[in-house]
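Good morning C.,

I know you're traveling, so I'll keep this short. The sequence:
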Amino acid sequence: MKLAAVSISLIVLSLMAGRYSPAQEISPPKEPQSLASLLAETERGNPQIQAARQAWEAAKLTPTQVSTLPDPQIMVQHFSVGSPRPFAGYTNSDFAYIGLGFSQDIPYPGKLRLRGEIAKKDAELVQQQYEAVRKAVLRDFKEKYYRLAFLAKKDAILENDRTLLGQVEQAAEARYRTGSGSQQEVLQAQLEQTRLLAEITRNQLDASIAQAGLKQLLGRSQSSADLDPAPLAQTPLPYTYSQLLDAAKSNNPRIAGIQKTVERQNLQIDLARKDFYPDFNVQYMWQRTDPSQFRAYYMLTFGMRIPIYRSRKQKPELAQAEVEKTRAQSEYETESQEVAAKLQQQFAAAEKSAELLKIYGDGLIPQARAELQAGMAAYQSNRQDFQALLSSFLDVLKLEQEYWQTMADREATLAQIEETTGLSLR
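The tokens, ready to paste straight into the viewer:
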């Protein structure tokens, strides 16, 4: 009985020392890696981000290509008289000649400029696609990072509670030896110890999976050293929903990308209207026959490509461009509504999770801790059975884990808000 009282007193002292306080780290990592440095490394090393950026760099090279005149053509002509042999009639006929010239296609004024502007809009769209990929990868990294931070915290909690549960087991064994307890209490304590060991093993497996995902996003080898996340801490949300929505409308790459599509289609409509006008061709030819007898010829030719099939080509082209613009506008409205709805869900989750953290920290966990302390005192004086004491202990363990899980979920939600709005909340 005396040994049981000593063990229970150790547990009570552990609780009073604040081992269950959610406001401090149980086992802080020695050298945590900052999230900012890891995000910078992800931007540099993630192949998905690099591929999207290279696609943008390639798209920026298109406008000058499509806004430049077509390459001119160089022509060499040979005209013989009286025979198919080369130079036949060259000295006795002014019809035989050798000619040199060039030809240049010239689109109707304004077409090249419009094509260049359309290509610029295409490049800006690819830029927004790159931004969407970059932000999605960084958000994914943050979510996995906070998941790993939670698992590290959970591992520390489980190890700490495993020690305390061992003390409870010792107290149950002491009561059993003195005849005031039962063997079932000892077996129940041992069962809970085994369950706790299994939970620790599962937690370590989850941490290994999270480590693999983070290394993949960083572009690191899977055999590289494991990441050591910084301790979880609650990040404030200093914006209202209206402010976040305004930021999303300005910074969200999906909305901006569709807006670029609308602008592109406006230019495409202008280009389709330009296609109702003819394109031009200019040719110049110099022709030389026997210089001792005949004079050289000089020929300038001006041609036009007339759009005579308007009902089958130009009019459908214009109608298609107008329909594509309407479709892009509808997509813009749809995406804006989806972003607003998603942001509302994220904002509500962040606000309610902050309230939950306060409820856990100020209410549930202190109340559960007080109940456990009272239960230990009652168990010590034989006024409470072991099952009730064990239930109180497991309640504290569960609430501790729920507190930190809520913390990690909230930080992941803030990462989603950052992706949606383009704001930095940390």
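Safe travels,
E.
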